[in-house]
Design a protein that fits this description.
4-stranded mixed sheet, 34% helix, 13 strands, TIM Barrel, 3 domains
Length: 457
């Protein structure tokens, strides 16, 4: 049997010189984090100047309209911009994630909620979500090196937009951080802290080290994770920002001395995002003894067929990043075109399993609306494929509640899509799905409060 080795072929060379605005930039400059940050594109006009004649005005007009209907402001690094196939930008998986085109967007699902995971409801202090008994999510910053158009935390991350006019502000602030530390210190059950945001990449080196060290010195904290998309969107920082990489290394070494763990969780969605520079950044982290795991989001047109996901999983493993989770896409404003049905994702998972070693095979999970936490996608109590409703329970996180995930309407029959537009029909469909899951057999179970609110007339 011939073994495919495409996952070992990584794009290298001066790939950025296909972009007119970067064609005179030499490697020593392009591969510095200073250039990547300085030349990050944050407006359509800047993009127009950078791309020159690579695309026509129609593309820029489509993008401008898409941004007006997106929850996140435009922010894309020169690295990512250079990896887009500008001969076919409409179907390119990287363009799809970062540059919204109005012509491809679909109407939002009627059950959409801005903070669909209810992170704020589970926040005992600002910027700290405590949902699982032994784990908390700490958000020290609310900015990222780039802005993904599909960000599940669009209620707080980045600048206000036309679609999300007043975001929750979680700027870097020592007083707010101290509140989080005090809560963690006073909660002995907490053993696992995720440091995210925003993005841990945007923490200053001294802040990164101070936060990591402070958490590790809390006796009952056993594990910390720095969550960052940086390795995907700006791997040059690992290689050129010695202060930041050294600070991360010292935190990991401190954890090791304390017999604890500090790791990095990152985020790649397409095999096209993993290039030679990514591998060189990972080689440095491997030499430093730093473990990196990946949390991918399942996205239509990006990784939603088996071959795309198989290549991504294999390529991640090849550069020593462990595939950890594949999330079914959260319900986020303006990105319904990216979501897949539960059935589509389950089929992809079936075809990925067996591609590589079990410990390098990601778990496919639904992060349930309303804050029920992550559930194995196969663990639904009931799945109504006709109406696109799957029902989950989460007895260890929020016992006594039903949690519902909704397939995108585009894949449903026209008459079913019409039913979803009527509040009374929505209530009937969801109620029937919960009854089919056993809702009448145990009357003590109820629908989580946020979904009850969504079903009100």
């Amino acid at each position: 049997m011939q073994v495919e080795e495409n996952h070992r072929i990584l794009k290298g060379g001066d790939y950025w010189k296909v972009i007119p605005g970067f064609e005179k930039i030499e490697a020593v400059e392009f591969e510095s984090h200073q250039f990547q940050q300085r030349a990050t594109v944050t407006s359509v006009e800047q993009l127009r100047r950078t791309l020159g004649g690579l695309v026509g005005e129609r593309f820029h007009e489509d993008l401008s309209a898409g941004i007006r209907n997106a929850p996140m402001a435009l922010r894309i690094s020169p690295h990512l911009l250079s990896l887009i196939d500008w001969e076919n930008p409409e179907t390119d998986p990287i363009r799809t994630q970062f540059l919204p085109l109005r012509s491809t967007q679909q109407p939002d699902h009627p059950m959409l909620q801005l903070d669909s995971l209810e992170e704020r409801r589970d926040s005992p202090v600002p910027g700290l979500t405590h949902r699982y008994p032994d784990k908390a999510l700490f958000l020290p910053v609310d900015t990222c090196p780039v802005y993904c158009r599909f960000c599940t935390r669009s209620y707080a991350v980045g600048a206000d937009t036309e679609l999300v006019a007043e975001k929750l502000k979680l700027h870097a602030n020592q007083t707010r951080w101290d509140q989080a530390f005090a809560y963690i210190e006073a909660t002995p059950a907490l053993e696992d802290i995720v440091i995210s945001g925003g993005d841990a990449y945007n923490l200053r080196a001294d802040h990164l080290e101070a936060i990591g060290s402070r958490l590790l010195q809390i006796g009952h904290v056993r594990r910390i994770r720095f969550a960052t998309k940086g390795l995907c969107v700006m791997p040059q920082k690992i290689l050129s920002d010695a202060r930041w990489t050294d600070a991360l290394t010292r935190v990991v070494e401190l954890a090791r001395r304390l017999h604890k763990t500090a790791v990095v969780h990152t985020h790649f969605n397409s095999a096209h995002e993993i290039v030679d520079c990514t591998q060189r950044a990972m080689n440095l982290l491997v030499e430093r003894g730093i473990t990196v795991r990946c949390q991918t989001v399942l996205q239509s047109g990006v990784n939603s067929n088996a071959s795309q996901m198989q290549l991504l999983v294999k390529r991640l493993g090849y550069v020593n990043i462990q595939p950890y989770y594949v999330y079914f896409h959260d319900m986020v404003p303006g990105v319904e075109d990216l979501r897949t049905s539960l059935a589509e994702g389950l089929d992809v998972e079936k075809r990925v399993r067996g591609t590589t070693a079990g410990f390098h095979t990601p778990a496919f999970v639904v992060d349930t609306m309303g804050g029920g936490g992550k559930r194995d996608a196969h663990s639904y109590e009931f799945y109504d494929r006709t109406h696109g409703i799957s029902v989950f329970t989460s007895p260890a996180v929020k016992p006594g509640q039903w949690f519902v995930y909704f397939d995108p309407l585009l894949g449903l029959l026209p008459e079913v899509r019409e039913r979803w537009q009527l509040p009374e029909e929505r209530r009937a469909m969801v109620t029937q799905a919960i009854r089919s899951a056993g809702g009448e057999a145990d009357a003590s179970w109820e629908l989580h409060p946020s979904l009850q609110d969504s079903l009100k007339p």
